[in-house]
Specification:
383 residues; alpha+beta; Cathepsin B, Chain A; 8 helices; globular; membrane
């Protein structure tokens, strides 16, 4: 009998010990992060899948990215259409690596032309007739996120719906945002100018390789210097099918860069892709002029600060995007806007491929010069 009692006591003690041990049915944070990282590596076919040391290093960066993403999404989400941040193809890069890889390709001049005075492109500037437009749109100073009161402008413009916007490009390892944004905008304006509005995608690769005037090919360039060069040289941009280069980052030299290079006489874009005039100026307090041009003329080019786009998945950017001129590091095309949205926004065409953001596009809130989007804008007029 005593043995039975002792056995029961042992069983009772062991049972109580197990009951006192906390059981966690959820996977640990590290295990969950590792699972996400394994999926990420396969999804983006990362080259270090077989390198254990590099794999471990990138995993630690990835875990840091997860923490940053969590903080971005928890802060100041006042509207359902506020930007959403998450895992992108850049989640295994440090911020320094991301800047060097994606944002080291814009080489803007100093405001006002720098110490050397105004640049030559000023003679091509399209004069602004803004006095009669001042009251067309009123941005609220009381509430920074207030819907602008718009008069005499359509509340929504999206040139993609007109079939005049080319596919989203992927600059990859070539720092060519300065050329892609300008060339894609010129292609859209040429299509708008033609009566049939037929889009002819143009060869930005040739422009990357040939543009002089301080531009450095895949090592970076400047939208205003490029426009100046296109106008000065009367350079005709050929159709995309005329491109000879398919991998700019790996090829050197051997290219004829004359103004007629790669352009057939029967090419319908021959006469429509000559730049006649362009602007390169700031509209920090006059974004209504940007909207006016988008509505009446077509897409425009803008320099932006895209450092916070590293984890962008979609929605309207309203925060986390500094607007200082000195921080401009990327060039994009703006192809429309929506003032009917809860948070009015620009439709921004990026050059990081269709898998980035909203099928390659970014939405940036209107009226606050977010991301410096109004600091350095180019309106383009074709011959």
């Amino acid at each position: 009998m005593t043995e039975v009692i002792e056995m029961l006591m042992i069983i009772l003690i062991v049972t109580l010990c197990f009951l006192m041990i906390p059981f966690n049915t959820k996977p640990s944070a590290v295990i969950e992060s590792r699972r996400k990282f394994d999926v990420f590596v396969r999804l983006y076919d990362k080259p270090y899948r077989g390198d254990a040391r590099e794999y471990a290093y990138r995993f630690q960066i990835f875990r840091t990215s997860l923490s940053k993403i969590r903080a971005l999404n928890e802060w100041a989400r006042e509207a359902n259409d506020t930007a959403i941040y998450g895992i992108t193809q850049y989640a295994d890069l440090t911020d320094r690596e991301f800047v060097a890889r994606q944002l080291a390709d814009l080489l803007p001049d100093e405001p006002g032309g720098g110490a050397g005075g105004p640049r030559a492109y000023q003679k091509y500037v399209i004069e602004s007739r803004s006095a009669e437009m001042k009251n067309d749109i009123i941005f609220s100073r009381a509430r920074r996120d207030a819907l602008p009161a718009v008069r005499n402008l359509p509340h929504r413009v999206d040139w993609r719906e007109q079939g005049v916007i080319s596919t989203v490009k992927n600059q990859g390892g070539c720092g060519a945002c300065w050329a892609i944004s300008v060339v894609d905008t010129i292609a859209a304006l040429a299509a708008i100018k033609r009566n049939d509005r037929k889009l002819i995608d143009l060869c930005h690769e040739r422009v990357v390789r040939c543009a002089a005037n301080g531009n450095n090919g895949c090592d970076g360039g400047d939208t205003c210097r490029l426009l100046e060069w296109l106008a000065e040289e009367s350079y005709r941009i050929g159709a995309a099918e005329s491109c000879l280069e398919r991998n700019l980052a790996d090829q050197e030299g051997g290219l004829n860069c004359t103004g007629e290079s790669g352009v057939r006489r029967e090419d319908g874009a021959l006469n429509a892709t000559l730049v006649k005039r362009f602007s390169c100026q700031g509209y920090e307090n006059e974004e209504h002029l940007m909207l006016r041009h988008l509505a009446t003329k077509g897409p425009i080019v803008a320099a932006v600060n895209a450092i916070s786009w590293k984890y962008y998945l979609g929605g309207v950017i309203q925060y986390h995007c500094d607007s200082d001129y000195e921080l401009l590091n990327h060039a994009v095309a703006i192809v429309g806007y929506d003032l009917n949205a809860t948070v009015p926004y620009y439709i921004v065409k990026n050059s990081w491929g269709p898998r980035f953001g909203d099928h390659g596009y970014v939405k940036v809130a209107i009226g606050r010069n977010l991301c410096g989007i109004a600091n350095r804008v180019s309106f383009i007029e074709l011959v």
